Amino acid sequence: MKLSENTLNVLKNFASINQGIIVKPGSTLRTISSNKTILAEAKVEETFEKEFGIYDLNKVLSVIDKNSPEVALEKDHMVFQSFGKIRVRYTEPSLIMAPPNKNISVPSYDVSFDLSAEALNWIFSMAAVLKCPNIVIKSDGDGGDITISAMDVKGEIVDDATAKVGENCDTVFQAVLKVENLKVLSGSYKVEISEVGVSRFSHESKDVQYWIAIEKSASKFGK
Q: Buried (b) or exposed (e) across 110-143, using 16+ Cβ within 10 A?
């Protein structure tokens, strides 16, 4: 089996969320962060025939990077063949934190808008430059704009950066997320936010979704 560039990019992204992964039969890859604030799912081109666990995904990705994306999935290990033969044994799935069998069920989302790749890259870069720990998405309602800001809701860092990302919003809300939880692939997204405490980022061109917790104590919905 040759892993596609898209699948490798997904695995690299998932490795930033959880160092291990359990691959299930089929074409869907899923992972969850150790603190359960990020759940991610991606549909890929390859179809996996069996379930297996990888304890250190970054190690496997490094092997691929230095050899080849060609991999043979054997009974208890995966095999990479290049100058020599490399075997990486599977890990017992019970030793790896795995996401629940079903995705987060949200009856409805209170806010929805499109977030361009340009806006996402800009807000991430400003958060890094200004050392801001939070991303804040908000609107004052009454058909007004939706803005996204890099800031510190605790006020310990006084610098911030804000950009308009939507308009004609009738919902009054402020959704606060931690920058460290926004471990998403680059690109444009449809963003949905629910007052139950979760946001969903759906990639516009790839079959990838992230459910990311919002900070309920700092977030608010309604006047």
A: ebebebeeebbeebbebbeebebbbbbbbbeeee
φ, ψ of residue 199 to 5 degrees: the values are -120, 155
Distances (CA, A) of 172 to 11, 22, 169, 199: 37, 40, 8, 16
Q: What is the pTM of this model?
A: 0.94
The two structure tokens encoding residue 126: 């400003």
What tens digit of pLDDT does each residue of 183-212 get? 999 999 999 999 999 999 999 999 999 999
Distances (CA, A) of 137 to 3, 48, 55, 191: 36, 38, 35, 10
